[in-house]
Predict the structure.
Amino acid sequence: MEIKELGEFGLIKRLAEQFSTSHPRVIKGIGDDASVTIQDDSTYLLCTTDTLVEDIHFSLKYTSSYNLGRKAVSISLSDIAAMGGTPTFLLTSIILPPTTSLDFVNLLYKGIKERAEEFGVTLIGGNTTSSPDKIIISTTMLGEVPKNHVILRKGASVGDNIYITGSVGGSALGMKIWKEKGNSIITDPFLKDAMLAHIDPCPRVREGRKIAEKKFATSMIDISDGLISDLRHIAEQSIVGAKVWAKKIPIPTGLKRWLLDHPQDITLALGGGEDYELLFTASKKKGNEIGALSKELDIPITQIGEIVPKENGVTVLDEKDKVFHLTSEGFEHFKSS
Ligand code: ADP
Ligand code: MG
């Protein structure tokens, strides 16, 4: 059997079954945005690792090494944010062809340093290895969270509302424009925003901490693979279903304008991925508190759907409440083209 038959998620599921942890200090092993282990009486340690591979996750045709460094840190920060945690320490592994210039490495680490410092994170180690061909950057981020603040993917209940911070689809639109138009001059400021969202996403660490402190989220994940794909992870871990109203999904102005000429590209919002927004569920009673938090943080927090029984599955509904058939739910390694 080839791993493309299983896909990324099928493969992880098999690993999770083989390594179902029973260590007394492990609260959550494989299956969430970060592992959760007991650090001391009042705190959990969070650990997450991510990898960016040239020509899979990024292209040097449109990403500078500086932005690559920033993004490598951002995507791991986002996983700590999704647990409600505070990031603390970082290890970076670089796998580089011998012909890589020293300037490239210097700029990569300038990006890593700046983004890490912005979030109070200290680089404490890593690994350096040669690669036959492509550039690979791997980041391992540690973080911590008070025990009573941690938010898992598991915990959503039928009747909970589904919320997202910010908007989705900008990064996927940005990637499409980078791929189609390359470095040609784009003047539309909203399209430029989308292009920037793709190469330099901003993780919602401050927002994740606030959501955790307020204790209204029953589950949370960051949107890295795609809105529907990541919602499916919450549904699976919480053993529930979910319905989302397509028209309620907040999308950035650039994508709104783009959709006027390319309506089929609504899939960029539903399955585009790499927005690094937070997707969370909360009891219906918490609506006013969530509205107040949105004002306090000065970012949109939008209700996009509702948790339903598992039998109903995960669906997206159009304006007439008809099930929207998705051509793509999100990115999955080995399966996605
Ligand atoms: P995210 O998109 O939030 O980074 P992933 O989909 O990469 O999460 O991973 C989901 C879960 O599977 C995490 O708990 C991660 O640690 C675990 N995981 C992924 N790949 C492996 C692997 N090769 N070995 C062990 N655990 C893995
Ligand atoms: Mg994640």
Remarks:
- Residues 12, 15, 30-33, 50, 79, 224-225 surround adenosine-5'-diphosphate (ligand 1) (CB under 6 Å).
